[in-house]
Amino acid sequence: MLQKGPLHARIIERFDEMSEQLQQAARHILEHPQEVALVSMRELARNAGVQPSTMTRLAKFLDFSGYEDFRAHHADVIRVSADGFAARALQRTEGPMNGEGLAYRMLQGLSAQINRLCDPDTIAHLNRMAEHLAKARRIYVLGLRSCHSVAWHFHYVMTLLGEKTVHLDGPAGTSGDPLIRATSDDVLLAISINPYSLQTLELAEAAREKGMPILAITDSEVSPLVTIAEHIVLFPTESQTFFHTLTPALAVSEVLCGLLASHDRAAALEELKRADRHLSAMNTYATSIPRRKI
After folding, report:
1. Average pLDDT over residues 262-283
2. What is the pLDDT at residue 75?
3. Buried b vs exposed e over 6-17: b needs ≥16 C-beta within 10 Å?
4. Exposed (0-12), middle (13-18) or buried (19+): which is 181, by Cβ within 10 Å?
5. In terms of DSSP H, where are the helices of 160-293?
6. pLDDT given at position 181
7. pLDDT at 53 (0 to 100)
8. Rounded to an integer, what distance in angstroms lies between the CA atom of residue 103 and that of residue 176?
9. Which helix (H) or strand (E) holds 155?
10. DSSP character for 164?
11. What is the C-alpha separation between 217 and 223, in angstroms, rounded?
């Protein structure tokens, strides 16, 4: 795992004081600290989606004389990380590649991101989150827009283990209605990534006002969910293409389901047997599929 730079804590501490453009630049640096030492200021700004002058303003905001002084303090994060940053930095200069090349890079990147989740700190956070979920009376699950798939996957798997989860996914603007009967004995599991869904943040605040602990699966230490969550698991979203990847988040979801199932194996087995009997009675899955002759 890549060590955190010396300015990591300072950036997080002063993040809320920054303008929107400074926050965009700072978020990119938090997620890619190696770039400060490895690429030019113009390339760093381009990667962050801001003007080069924004990087200079950020450096001065953080009490440096200028960008070069700021850059010098990132010298200790040049080490190549597990996801092969140096290789990816060099690949940026390559010309167009064929479909097989892009597919290889995408799959290689996903493999590295999953591997990063094996960090001992992440494993510890996963275990603590699972313990908290196991003790809750109900788990309210929230994930909107691109994160809907992660929330639904967690809820779907958990329905095979009983009736512990409530998916906040109501039609006609009723997503928050199940919170009417929620209490401090319940928890909210919220999944969100940048750009963060406003409705997710509003529902999380509503849950917190009811005394519910918030557990967050999110993408950054400066995610707005971090300030209100009791337990957090961070996952990478960077991708080789134009959209954020949610594969690591799905992996986190599956690990949590596995940990919850193992918490009371006997009860989980009984629920799974009940689910199997019901699905069989409903003739849900094909037991044999005839092959067509061509």
Report:
1. 91
2. 60
3. ebeeebbeebee
4. exposed
5. 198-209, 247-263, 265-281
6. 93
7. 93
8. 39
9. helix 148-159
10. -
11. 10
